Each structure stands twice: as structure tokens, then as C-alpha cells.
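Quick sanity check, Ribulose-phosphate 3-epimerase:
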Amino acid sequence: MTARTPIIAPSILASDFAKLGEECRAVAAAGADWLHIDVMDGHFVPNITLGPDIVKALKPHVSIPFDVHLMIAPVDNYLEAFADAGADIISVHPESGPHLNRTLKRIRELGCKAGVVFNPSTSPSVIEWMMDEIDLILVMSINPGFGGQKFMHSQLAKIARLREMIDATGRDIDLEVDGGVTVETAPLCMAAGATALVAGTAVFKGGPSAYAANIAALKGG
Ligand code: DX5
Ligand code: ZN
């Protein structure tokens, strides 16, 4: 079997916010498959980033899918705003609302793919009874809130467990990993069963002239 090539989703958290549109165009031109957008509220996680107006402003700049990672609570009241702003995938943490099943159904009703995000402490069992409602699973290999953290190897076994759960459905659910993804840790994630990798620091390091090489390296050279 040939090794699977990962979907690469650069996290714009590591980009130059003063020229965000330009940065998004640059990573898309450099081979990014999705654009990973980290939304933080200073409450669910200890950092504040951006809201739906910025997502909307970025949409015309690139045609690759917008992979929106919501780290806000309560999350339900903001789903529509992010869908309207151009999100293609909306991923939520189970801890960010009272009814995960209802939240995922709502995301699909809004025309987006529905994702569930696992904090390092969140158990795979959270989604055991609702695999049919899920289009993407995002495993955090750091505690959410900041880029540039060290990859937690403890999460590799969880990725493998979630891969088994996905395979048992026979459905094509993407398994994405977020946090501390580098050329060293990317192959470990892929070996555990991931299909998509978020990378902030590893894509944006070195500036625009390095983006294509950085993305190619994460894809395996
Ligand atoms: C953190 C975010 C990540 C972060 C990853 O809460 O969800 O997407 O930007 O950054 P790196 O790749 O630098 O660990
Ligand atoms: Zn993220």
C-alpha cells in the first residue's frame, strides 16, 4: 500500500495578521489544501483571535475550503455567522455547548461539514453514538489556545482509536490533527491514521518564499 498524502491545512494563526489576505493567497498558491482558521474568544481558551467579519473578508482571496475551528463558548449562537461568512467545515469542541448532537445537525443544516474537536483530555467515547452526524474529526495534539506548542505524543493512540471508529462506519470521515505538527511529527500522525494535518508554525516559518517547500515537506517531500 502506498502512503497516503496528507491534506495540509495551514493555520493562519501563525501568519502575519497585518497582511492576512496576502498570506492566505500565498499559502494557497504554495499548495495548501484547506485554510485552517482558529477562532478564540478569550473565555473558552485563554487567547482572542478573529471573528466572522474577518472570515468573510478573506473568502474572496482564496478558493480552497475554509476549515473553521471554533474555540468559543457557548458556540451555538455563532454557527450561522460563520457559515454565512464562508466556512466550509465548522468544527466544535463538545465542551463548548450543552447538546453536541444538536450543534452538529445545525452545522449541516447551514450547509457546512460538521467537525468534532478533541481536547487532549477528551475521550473518543464522546462521539460513539453519533458517528452518522460527523464529517470530520479534529484531534488536538496540544492544549488549544496558542500556536508553537510541543506535540503531545500521548494523542497518537487516540488518533489510532478514532481511525478504528471511522473505519467501522465505512464512511469517509476526515481525521485531522492540530498542534505541534512538524516534519518529524507529521509521519507519526499519518501512521496512526490521520488524513489531514493542521500546521501553523511549520508552514509559516521562513516567510512566503519558504511556504511551498514547507508544505511539500509536510506532505512527505
Ligand atoms: C491552537 C490552534 C492551532 C495552532 C497550531 O489552539 O488550534 O491550529 O494554530 O499551531 P502550530 O502548528 O504552531 O502548533
Ligand atoms: Zn486549530
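Posting the structure with no commentary besides this: Residues 11, 36, 38, 69, 178, 198 surround zinc ion (ligand 2) (CB under 6 Å).
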